[in-house]
């Protein structure tokens, strides 16, 4: 009984394989028949004959493969290596469909409309054959015999699902849509390479060919490509290995890659997309899909290249700007006076802008043999505009370039500057200024203040610091402002400190801000190294390494 069942099963398989061979040969017969009719067509352009011969050879090769792989004696053994089997069976179909579509495009361009139906029938028959082969080989073996008898070919577009409405043609259907580029085509099959190269060249691309993974890597390192079309199955390094090496090398990582794949390689394609591939194109190639995907990749590459160029231009521009700002900052610093270590008046200072260019400035100079002028100014804001205004004011004070002004009179100097620099003519910027004149004969200090913090005098005989206050409006804000002169007699050993508010208006980490009185008390403490260095260290400690929000300027004067 068992022997009878086995014989029956064997007979069933034999009948199924016979039906498979029959179904697979039907579209091949269509391919060969229509191809032969075209070859015999009167007026057929001679240039079409080589490709028609390749189509015919592909059909004959498929017939031989059907006989080899769908033989009852070897079917189960050969079907075991399904990946290799599908690859070998698809390769001739790729040639048939590809060359048929290539000739179809040429025929349309040359107006040979009578050839188009037969060429389309060849391509459709190739898709039909591919659908049948997928149905018989890719499905689980347990389901295959039952499905064989059910499968019938109703039309030649078996695996092309559709929808029930008419869609306008995509832009990619027009060859002019494709962006031209330099493409590297990698495929181990010579006919696939030639066919794809010819199609791409007809679309305006420059094409370089490679047959192995190692050759791809060598060419990519040596030449500049806009896109690589990379076959999955190649001798030596396969497509996935080539892709991972490209994406791990910074010199090649930005080159977009499209994977050339058969329909049974979805998992490998997914791995390639995860590894950095832009897209994939299935075999046989659909000319519209191929053009669309290549065009999309080249569009994205052009955009990335433009972004990269813009970024590099921005970096270059930023470097130029930083260099110019550094040069301007060096110029501003060069205007600051040298320290005075001896003489009738001794002077030292610390200057730290919060950005490359700040709005603070300070200076001092002799008006004559016995009168010494000193000042600190603070322009609102920071950056180039504030620095330009502070330099302008500093040059006016250094050169005493305001006519009919006695620069030994602090109130007159501030009034003159208020008239010369109205904020509406300075981009709405104003500044504060402390300006004083020391007479070395009488040791008298005359000073005026325009919205600036008071100066501080430290005297060894007085326990508390003395704040020198006089009223006065900001410079440039009120045209009719009047300024008052203050006076203070300096005793031997007195130290005068003039500073901007950035030295003491420091925000702590707890949200509170240092006040002027606290700063004055800090000034009154005994110095550990130099008083100026102590103050800078104190300010830095308060900010706890967070940097300064405002410029820091402090001037120290001593009349021995």
Provide a descriptive summary of the structure in words.
The chain is of the alpha/beta class and about 550 residues long. It has 15 helices and 15 strands. The N terminus is likely disordered.
Using the 3D structure, state the CATH architecture of the largest domain.
Answer: 4-Layer Sandwich
Percent helix range: 40-55%
Here the CATH topology of the largest domain equals Phosphatase 2c, domain 1
The number of distinct β-strands equals 15
Rounded mean pLDDT is 85
What shape does the CA trace take?
A: rod-shaped
Rg over C-alpha atoms, rounded to the nearest angstrom: 44 Å
Segments where pLDDT lies below 50 for 5+ residues? 1-15, 140-167
**What is the helix/strand order?**
HHHHHHEHEHEHEHEHEEEHHEEEEEEHHE
How is the secondary structure organized here?
Elements: H1 2-40, H2 49-69, H3 75-80, H4 82-110, H5 116-137, H6 144-150, E1 182-186, H7 190-202, E2 206-210, H8 213-222, E3 227-231, H9 239-248, E4 257-261, H10 266-275, E5 279-282, H11 287-335, E6 346-352, E7 360-366, E8 371-379, H12 383-399, H13 410-420, E9 431-439, E10 444-450, E11 455-458, E12 466-468, E13 486-489, E14 495-499, H14 516-523, H15 531-543, E15 552-558
Helix pairs in contact: 1-2, 1-5, 2-4, 4-5, 4-7, 8-9, 9-10
In short:
Helix content is 47%, strand content 15%.
Question: What descriptors fit this protein?
Answer:
Rossmann fold; 3 domains; 560 residues; five-stranded parallel beta sheet; alpha/beta; Four Helix Bundle (Hemerythrin (Met), subunit A); Phosphatase 2c, domain 1; disordered N terminus; 15 helices
